Amino acid sequence: MQATTVNIPYFNGNPRPMPIVLLREKTSGLMSYFTNFHNPADTAQYRNQGKWRAEATRVEVALHNQLAASGIPRFMTGDMNDRAPYMCRVIVEAPLVAARGGYSSNGVCVANKPRAVDWIFGSPDLTWSGYIEDRSPLVARTTDHPMIVTEVTVDGTRAPAALSPTPPLPVVPAVTY
Predict the structure, then answer these.
(1) Distance (Å, rounded) from C-alpha 5 to C-alpha 106?
(2) Which of 27, 80, 106, 114 is most buried, judged by most C-beta within 10 A?
(3) What CATH number is attached to the domain comprising 52?
(4) How many structural domains is the chain composed of?
(5) Residues 36-58 as b or e (16 or more Cβ within 10 Å = b)
(6) 55, 33 Cβ separation under 8 angstroms
(7) What's this model's pTM, rounded to 2 decimal places?
(8) Cβ pair 104, 91 in contact under 8 A
(9) Could you read off the pLDDT of 108-152 as tens digits, one per residue?
(10) Looking at the domain assignment, is residue 168 inside a domain?
């Protein structure tokens, strides 16, 4: 329906365009935003990338706060190259919900000891079930990451803007770094 990109700082802060798409499900007419990010890891070639992961997270949170204003459900997926600290920041600042569970209350974040650096988040109006981190032999032959799988329900009564007959104007990210 609509697509654009936002520049996310990658290795040594070099910008890399990452996708933002607005999709409409044909049968129900429900719209949802989808974003996917890959934040920089610390590697032998690129050491000490924590500063850039933190900046990438700041940009991702700012973008999701902009999208939240539309009232349309939001999804964020990706290899964030971080575990609990990433989740704790995103669920408080965006705000999004982790498909795998976890919560923040009174300044205390419980991330349920995530093993993977790969995440699926969504807006609070979504209902999650059946979260799996698939580490089967087939997955292991194709990637060094688990395959993250979950089910989600988008309820138009909880997110009425998702049923708007007219899609919002294209997203023009105003986030900078």
Answers:
(1) 35
(2) 80
(3) 3.60.10.10
(4) 1
(5) ebebbeeeeeeeebeebbebbbe
(6) no
(7) 0.92
(8) yes
(9) 999 887 788 999 999 999 999 999 999 999 999 999 999 999 999
(10) no
